[in-house]
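Before surveying the methods themselves, let us examine one representative protein, written as a sequence plus integers encoding its fold.
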Amino acid sequence: MLNNKYLHLTLVICNLTFCLAASQAIALPFRSNLNRGNDLYQKQAYPEAGQIYQKIIKQKPKDQKSQFNLGDSLYKDGQYEASQQLFTKLTAEATSQKLKQRSYYNLGNSLFKQEDYKNAIKSYEEALKLDPKDKDAKFNLELAKKKAAQPKQKQQQDKKNNQNKKDQQKKDQDKKKQKDQQNKNKPKNDQEQNQEKQPKPGQMSREDAQRLLNALENEAKHKEAKKGQGRGQGLGGKDW
């Protein structure tokens, strides 16, 4: 249930990004960069999209909509603390009520992801003051309140379980990479030798063939020895 709610948060913040980007009207060079950034964002290349937005901001430091889109890219890339800083700045400096409201909403999302439910609640409440009809803010506010109401022990256990899951996934990935690298670095001659040691279906192994050869040689020697003993007895058996 919680995973679906997280997905809900992600989809909403994504929609806000494109809405702002589509309404932005700036000089052509910046518009071109903005389109490139939005294309990269749509392809989920969030770090690359963020670099484009940063380039726009460097050229136009007061471009608040590009700052908002940068915050979105950081959020989608899992950099929640960095996105929190940007949205906090925008809540104080936004020149339009719409941008301020959305900044409060996304600030709440960034805080929620960091499990700072108390401050996330405050951000969602501020967003609702500016737009009481924002259903997403209402939904996320109730979710944050439920998480904040959980016993500390439960919150810590959930956090520990999530961390253990991440650690295990990383271990599995590292183990797979190490195994792949070992197979890649293993000399081909060794692999061929190992294959040669294994008998093919219906074939005798080298060890079995050698044992059979030794047994045949021993049997031949044994028969030859018996023949020699018979001739000696016959020739010297009688005294003429």
The domain at 2-147 is CATH 1.25.40.10 (Serine Threonine Protein Phosphatase 5, Tetratricopeptide repeat). Residues 152-185 form the longest helix (34 residues). The CA atoms of residues 175 and 181 lie 10 Å apart. The radius of gyration is 38 Å.
